[in-house]
Records
---
Amino acid sequence: MEKDLPAKKNEISEVFWKTYQALTEGMTGVLASDRKEVFLTIGYLFQRMRGGNFLKDLWETWDHFREKGKIKEDYATTEQCQASLQEILDCLDRDSPDEIRFSFLKKLFITIASEKLSNRDSFLPQQYMSIARSLTSGEIIVLLSTYRAART
C-alpha cells in the first residue's frame, strides 16, 4: 500500500515522503538498467528496498505519535530533531542496519521527540543518537538485557 503525503503535512513528514519517493525512483532506475548492471547492483537494490521499508515504518510511527499529540508540531524545526533524524537517515543510507539496530534507533528517536525525558534544548539526545548508531546489534542486546536485569 503506497502512502501518500498527508494533507496535513509537517517538515518531517515531507522529508520522509521525499526520501521514500527518491528511493523508489532510484530503484526503478536500476531496474531499467542494462541486465549486466542489474546483477552488479542486486545487493545494493536489496539494501535500498530494506532501507525503504525501515523509512516507511519510521514515517508511520512519527505521524502516529504526532497525530496523538505526543510529539509537538514545532519539534520538527528544532536542531535536536534535525540532528537526530540525520543520524537515522545516515544509518539507513550508509550502515545497512538490521531490524534490531533500526528498531533501537527508531524508539530512541521517538522517545527524544516526545520530550518526556529531556527538553529540546539539551545536547544529550543528539549524543545518544550518535552513540546508538555506532552500536552493533549484539551490543544493543547486551545493553537492553543489562537494563532489564537492573530494573528487576
---
Amino acid sequence: MPNIYKFNIGSDFVLKAVTGIEDFMESSEASSIRIALSGGSSPIAVYEKLAASQKIDWSRIEIYQVDERSDHSNEEMIREALIAKLSDLKAFHPFDKNYEKKIQALPRPFFHLVLLGLGEDGHTASIFPHSSAVEEIEALTLKTESPTGVKERITLSFPAILSSEKIIFLIRGAGKKEILSRWLSDEGSEMEIPAKVILDHPDVDVYYDYSQS
C-alpha cells in the first residue's frame, strides 16, 4: 500500500511534495539520476518550486517524459515550469521518434524516480481505462488515445514505469476523492482503473491536495 499524504492547503502540498523529492534525490548514490516527469496541471507548482531548490544538484539529473500529447503541451509545460529555470541540468530527453530505443538502452531500473498523476477516470500517464495499453507487457512506449481533451498521446508503458526505484503521485482536486478511494480499495479492476497496476510497485508515495475544487 502506498504512503498517503493528504493536504487541505495547496502550499503545504507543494512544500511537502518538493521536500519528498529533494530527500530522495539527496539520498541517491547514483552519479546520474534519471527521473520521468508527467504533464498536466497538477504538478506545475511542484516543478516551479523544484526549480528554486537549493538542495538538488541538477548536474546529476537527467529528465525524461512520462507521456506526451500531439500538441507537445507536456514538453512545453515541463520546459517552462522547470527546465528553462535550470542552468546546470545534465540532460532533458523529450519524446521523439527514438524514445523507445533510448529507454531500451538504459540500465535497469530505467528510472530512479517517476512522477505520476491520477485522473478522475483512474488513468495515469496516458494509459486510459479499457485500453489494450493496460495489459501491455513488452513495449516500453505506446501510442494511446484519450477519451477527452487532446486525443492522440504517446506514453511510457507500465513495464517502463514500474522499472523505477520510486514512484510519486502528485494529485490535486477535491473531485478526485472518489477515484483515490476506489484506486486504493479492492473496488474495480486494473482495466477499469489503470492506476491500480502501479500498486504492484514496492515504493510509492501519494501527495494529495484536496483543497482545490
---
Amino acid sequence: MQNKQLSLKHLVREPSVKTENPPLLLLLHGVGSNEEDLFGLADYLDDRFFIVSARGPYTLGYGAYAWFHVQFTPNGPVIEPEEAESSRLALLNFIGEVVGAYGLDAQRVYLMGFSQGAIMSMSLTLTAPEKLAGVVAMSGRTPPEVLSKAVPPERLKGLPIFVAHGTADQVLPIHYGRQTRDILSELPVKLTYREYPMAHQISAESLADIAGWLKHKLDGQED
C-alpha cells in the first residue's frame, strides 16, 4: 500500500489477516532515531494489526529525529516542554488522520513506544485515554510536565497498559520505570509492569511478552 501524505511521515504494514476496519498499532521511536527503527519489529507482532511507524517532527541530524529536544543532566533529563506538548497534539491529530485515511477501527487504537516514544505514549495515556485501547511503554518515563494535564482518574478506568524497563538501563535508569509503575498503580488502569535484565533496549524476552500481551488484547482476553 502506498503511504498516504499525512501530517507525520510514516511507514505502514498492512495486516495479513484481512478484516474490515482493522486495529491500529502506532509505533513511536526514541530520540535520535526514526520510523525505520521500531518498524523492524512488525514481523514479530500480531498480523491482525495495521501497523504504522511514525517519525518525530524535530530533526536532530541526518536520519535522526525526536518528539522533543532533551538534555541529559546529572539531575535527570531536561526537556523542551513546548515541543513535547506540540508533539502530543500532533500525535492526537495524526491518530485521527491515520484512522480515516486507512479505514481503521477508531475503537482499537494501540500505542507502542520506546524511550522518548514511551514518554509520548504515557503523555497520550494520561491526557486522552478515550482515544486508546491499549498502551505499551518501553524504557521510558512519565515526565512531571504531563501530570498537570492529566484527566480525572475515572476516565482511565480499565485501560490496559504494559510497562517494560531494563534493570541495567543507563539512559533512563530503572527508577523511572518504577516511578511510572507507582503513578499508574494509583489509577484505575489494568497495569502490567515487567522488569528485564537488559540495558536501554528491547530484548527478545520483553518483545515476546509484549507481543503476547497485545495478542491477548485483540483476543479480548484479560491478563
---
Amino acid sequence: MKIAFYILLTGLFLACGESSQRAGALQVKEDELNKKEQELLIKENSLLAREQELAKKEKLFDSTSRRPVNDTLTARVPALEGLWTVQMNCIETTCSGSAIGDTKTEQWEISLQNNRVTAKAESNNKLVRLYSGNYSGDVLELTAIQDSSQEAQSTKMIVRLQHPKDNKMEGERQILRGEDCRIVYNLQLRKL
C-alpha cells in the first residue's frame, strides 16, 4: 500500500510538472501572439497615416491641375479642347525625302490652361510630338517643343490654325530644317 501511495504521489508530481510545462509553453505562445498583434497594429497605423498623406497630396495635385475659373481663352474658344483627328497633306517642299502629296494622319489632344494651348500629337498610339502656343489675333499659333538633340534643335515646326467651327479646323504646318529645307502641310482637323 505504501508503494501504491508513492507511485500515486510520484504520478501526481509528474502530472503537475507536465501541466506547468504546458502552461508555460501556452504562456510563451500567447506572449508571441500578443507581440505579433502589436506589430500588426503599428504597421496598420503606419499604413493609415501613409494613406492619409497620399490622399492629401492627391487632393492638392487635383486642385492645382484644375483650370482657373478666370481663364479667358477657355471662355473665348471652348470648342478647342478635346481630341482631334488631323489629316496632313504636303503642299510644298524643298527637302529631299519629302514629296508634294505626301499624307499623314495623327490624333491631337488639345488642352487649355492659363491662357496657353497645348497639343499632344500621337500616331499609332505613340506620342510623337508636343506643341505649345497661344492665339495671335484670330489665329492659333503652336510651336513644337523640341528635345535637346542636335537634329531637333535645327528643326522648327510651326502650326497655324483658324478658330474651330462646327467641330472642324483648318490650317497649315511648316517644318523648317536649316536654311534651304522647308515643308508645308495643309491641315484638316475634325473633333472626335
